[in-house]
Amino acid sequence: MPLALTTVFADLPDPRRDTANKLHRLTDILVIATAEERVELESLVGKGKADARKWTHARILLQTDAADGGPARTDEQVAAGLNVSTRTVERLRQRFVEDGLRAALLPKPTRRVYAHVLDGAQEAYLIVLVCTEPPAGKRRRTLQLLAEQVLTYLPVPASSGSTPPTIRQPYPTC
């Protein structure tokens, strides 16, 4: 009869307990929201007037709250109930404990840097094109038409017809 793995490895120390890696200690983090935080989370969820990520994060924090009266559900239960991964629940709990409620509800700012295809003068030309009347026979300027006109008059690197050149500001509403 083969031995169970728990019996074979029972004498060995668990390497996860002796490591400084935070991933293995996430199960030790408890979310204990104050009464004010809990009221704010409940009002956010009750209104339903927040973006989806913020609303989901608020629900996760409410479900994992281990304070008195909180459900204190496990990561697996919360992940299954809210259709998110357990890793999302772990990271959110960690962010709440380390950085607070505001940081846990808002998405992390991106560190990604986007390359700009157009310089300032070229952007100004594109804005002028967007704000002027479309050519004869056209009801409006399509992205394809703008790309063709920009490539006709300005020396810019080739871009695909379905992707507009990346500019530093959003297109104006004229």
Q: Would you give an account of this structure?
A:
The protein is an all-alpha fold and 174 residues long. It folds into two domains: 91 residues, no CATH class; 62 residues, no CATH class. It contains eight helices and no strands. α3 runs antiparallel to α4, α3 crosses α5 and α4 packs across α5.
What share of residues are in beta strands?
A: under 5%
Q: Percent range for helical residues?
A: 40-55%
Give Rg in angstroms: 26 Å
Mean pLDDT value: 77
Order of helices and strands: HHHHHHHH
Number of domains: 2
| Uncertain stretches of 5 or more adjacent residues | 1-9, 14-24
Instruction: Give the overall silhouette.
Output: elongated
Number of separate helices: 8
User: Largest sheet at a glance?
Assistant: none
Query: N- to C-terminal separation?
Result: 79 Å
Structural class: mainly alpha
Strands, count = 0
